[in-house]
Amino acid sequence: MTTSTTTEVIGILGGMGPAATADFYAKLVATTPGSSDQDHLRTVIWSDPTIPDRTEALLGDGPDPTPWLLDGSRVLREAGATVIAIPCNTAHAFVPRIADHVGLPIVHMIGEVARHLTTVSPPIHTAGLLASSGTVRAGLYQEWLDRYGIRLVLPDAASQDREVMTAIHAVKSGTRDGTTTALLTRAAQRLTEQGAQAVIAGCTEIPLGLSADAVDVPLIDPALVLAQALVRRATTESRAG
């Protein structure tokens, strides 16, 4: 696959947060097969950190980010993007509001994770979720995993607030230390104790503070799954062309 054989241009709608956007692009590059610059995908990144907080909006404590997401999608389209990727789990709660107005397909990260879980061996029947309170409240993973018959377990209210959200805010503020890792490790352990056979790092900041070897079951990184889906799409498009 090279830029001469695929017309796909990946549009990354980012800034939610900036470190997660940079991490996602690095994963897209690492996932793309090739041995030269020309083997990689053309990519347009719109990183807009002024997009209002998605969790606050879903909890009723902040403005609706939909207008910003629409504006960013239009920027990407006008820049030549042919498909949009949104490396923010919570932002997917707003995808139904923008999908019909963007004029480009959006590769749905959470849908891709649900499909991915059906392909692994041994099969995953119960998955745990570490995510923002907005993602949990919106039921994004619950909805998609239900479609595939996968049970979802969640942190209790105390763990969600004191461990998961504290760690997410720490990563967003630039803090990635042992304390952050310990918070996420404890939260993940609580999920495995509830029967989780895999833990979904359902906020793009979480893989920045929790390594796979800190969890005793597979840690599923939605940003990596999304990157892999985009590469497959571009490869398929290349072959079809």
TrEMBL record:
<dbReference type="InterPro" id="IPR015942">
    <property type="entry name" value="Asp/Glu/hydantoin_racemase"/>
</dbReference>
<protein>
    <submittedName>
        <fullName>Aspartate/glutamate racemase family protein</fullName>
    </submittedName>
</protein>
<dbReference type="Pfam" id="PF01177">
    <property type="entry name" value="Asp_Glu_race"/>
</dbReference>
<keyword id="KW-0413">Isomerase</keyword>
<dbReference type="InterPro" id="IPR001920">
    <property type="entry name" value="Asp/Glu_race"/>
</dbReference>
<dbReference type="InterPro" id="IPR004380">
    <property type="entry name" value="Asp_race"/>
</dbReference>
<comment type="similarity">
    <text>Belongs to the aspartate/glutamate racemases family.</text>
</comment>
